[in-house]
Amino acid sequence: MTTSRRLADRKIAKFQKNITKRGSVPEKTTKKGDNYPVGPILLGFFIFVVVGSSLFQIIRTAMSGGMA
């Protein structure tokens, strides 16, 4: 066997090995659904600020006589 043929066979074998592994992802690289980018305290504070400011705006609009 020539050197180029040996290298070609090695390359083909490596390619075939990768083909059989296609679609099987290791479990450690997959993302878990439990990990949130924002903590629950910060999320609660954000919701508090948004809801509180909207309620404050509604009350202020009602006190000033509605839409003017």
UniProtKB/TrEMBL annotation:
A Pfam family the protein falls into: RAMP4
GO cellular component: endoplasmic reticulum membrane
Any one biological process term the GO annotation gives: endoplasmic reticulum unfolded protein response
TM stretches of this protein: 38-59
Compartment(s): Endoplasmic reticulum membrane
Keywords of this entry: Endoplasmic reticulum, Membrane, Transmembrane, Transmembrane helix
InterPro entries: ER_stress-assoc (IPR010580)
Keyword Transmembrane: yes
Main localisation: endoplasmic reticulum
UniProt KW RNA-binding keyword: no
Membrane topology: Single-pass membrane protein
Similarity field: Belongs to the RAMP4 family.
Protein name: Stress-associated endoplasmic reticulum protein
Annotated source species: Ensete ventricosum
